[in-house]
Amino acid sequence: GAGVSQSPSNKVTEKGKDVELRCDPISGHTALYWYRQSLGQGLEFLIYFQGNSAPDKSGLPSDRFSAERTGGSVSTLTIQRTQQEDSAVYLCASSFWAAQETQYFGPGTRLLVL
Amino acid sequence: DQQVKQNSPSLSVQEGRISILNCDYTNSMFDYFLWYKKYPAEGPTFLISISSIKDKNEDGRFTVFLNKSAKHLSLHIVPSQPGDSAVYFCAASGNNFNKFYFGSGTKLNVKP
Q: What is d(CA A23, CA A91) in angstroms, rounded to the nearest whole number?
């Protein structure tokens, strides 16, 4: 079956612009995560959705970052007024239910803020 | 403050030999540990996991060891194969499982 997909695969934007990243989780997976990986760094947790429950936003680095998940499926991560330090690979993962299940990662969106 | 650390950014091993990848953590409340493998331009893929009630978990050529008193886990790959060349991330979570902490990764190069 189809894995986790993310779009766009690459995004170049100018400082100050807003960007929107999309994640399509595996069908039937209720848990969805966003991470980002900056150059030379590990994966940094951003936000976690479980079904239709309110998300755990504790990892969002600033109020310029927001995420939503419509209908318990597709998720979008929005970064407003992008800064150069936002440049990173943004990874989405999903799992069937509780987070102890294996997380399946998408290929990521490579964001470059000029 | 990194709660999961992989202090070796890279490791080079000869094909057929053992690869040992190490990971240290600081939070004694972590209950669940995983290893992921990542190839360039792809997302990480799950490799093997271990819960805190165990000290060893084996799956084929891959074995994860957990030393809770030392807050240390390791991944052993025996025998190493060139296709194992990738970046390996360890990750940890508490028992609420809503947040995973990842290390910075170790790049493994298995030489033919």
A: 9
What's the rounded mean pLDDT across residues A28-53? 85
Q: How many CA atoms lie within 13 A of A30 on its CB side?
A: 11
> CB-based contacts of A113: which residues, under 8 Å, 6+ apart?
A13, A14, A15, A82, A83, A84, A85, A86, A87
Cβ burial, residue B107 (10 Å; 0-12/13-18/19+):
middle
Q: Do A108 and B43 touch (CB under 8 A)?
A: yes
Question: What pLDDT is attached to residue B47?
Answer: 93
Report the residue of chain A nearest B104, measured CA to CA.
Answer: A42
| Closest of A88, A100, A65, A96 to residue A10, by C-alpha | A88
Task: Tell me the average pLDDT of chain B.
Answer: 92
Q: Which chain A residues are closer than 8 Å to B98 by Cβ?
A: 48, 50, 56, 99
Of B32, B46, B89, the CB nearest to A43: B89
Put simply, the answer to whether A91 touches B43 (Cβ < 8 Å) is yes
DSSP, collapsed to helix, strand or coil, labels residue A4 as coil
Cα angle: A85, vertex A91, A97; to 5 degrees: 140
For β-strands B100-102 and B86-93, DSSP reports them as antiparallel
